[in-house]
Amino acid sequence: MPENTPPPSAATRDYEAKVSQEAGGLARRTARAGLPQPFGDPLSGVVLVAEPAVVAAGATGARANARMVDALQRSLAAVKLDRAYVTWSHPDLLEEILSLEPAALVAAGTTAAQAIDSCNYPLAKMLFSEAPHGSWFAWTKGAHGLRLPALAPALADDEAKRRFWIAFLALRALVPDR
Q1: Contact 129, 114 (CB under 8 A)
Q2: Where exactly are the structural domains of the chain?
Q3: SS3 breakdown of the chain: % helix, strand, coil, rounded to 5?
Q4: Which pTM was predicted?
Q5: Which of 84, 92, 125, 127 is the most buried (most CB within 10 A)?
Q6: CA within 13 Å, CB half, 61
Q7: What does each of the 178 residues of the chain score in pLDDT, given as a tens digit?
């Protein structure tokens, strides 16, 4: 901890514990559904919702999802957002968004955008499905949204990779002192 930083207050510690507990419970539920484990810091303020490569369990789906996780981790590290929280489109997504209260919400893929939209978030000003790829928009009064192309096609096709990466680079706007 830097020298001049005061220790976190009891309220801050309680909030962090609450968010961590809720995120842990949701992670266990998504694992039971056969989805990859969420990763990153649930308190980072940045939540990226991805669509899994293959929802059904099995060796091929597990390998494809592992490639997606690796690609997302490397991509986030490249734009210096290693702490961003990555989760998957799943039935408890609204609960997860409500508990994490992101300042920036990112949808990677059409299915992820539709999953966020189907949550019917009461304060949403714009649907993710209507947003152009790679452009920030005001999702709520206090949170920005970003829609990305799907990652799975980008792992196998150079043109899809270029489209994904160009849109993904918009995340650099979240990094202070670039």
Answers
A1: yes
A2: 10-174
A3: 45, 15, 40
A4: 0.82
A5: 84
A6: 11
A7: 455 666 666 665 655 666 666 666 666 666 666 677 899 999 999 999 998 765 444 446 677 788 889 999 999 999 999 999 999 988 889 999 999 999 999 999 999 999 999 999 989 999 999 999 999 999 999 999 999 999 999 999 999 999 999 999 999 999 876 5
The residues pairing with 88 across neighbouring beta strands, listed in sequence order, are: 50
Q: Which residues of 59-83 are buried (b: 16+ CB within 10 A; e: fewer)?
A: eebeebbeebbebbeebbeebebee
Which of 122, 130, 55 is closest to 88 using CA atoms?
A: 55
CATH classification of 10-174, choosing from 3.40.30.10, 3.40.470.10, 3.30.710.10, 3.40.50.1390? Answer: 3.40.470.10
- Residue 135 one-letter amino acid: S
Close Cβ partners of 158 (under 8 Å, ≥ 6 residues apart) = none
**What is the length of the chain?**
178
**Residue 133 DSSP one-character state:** B
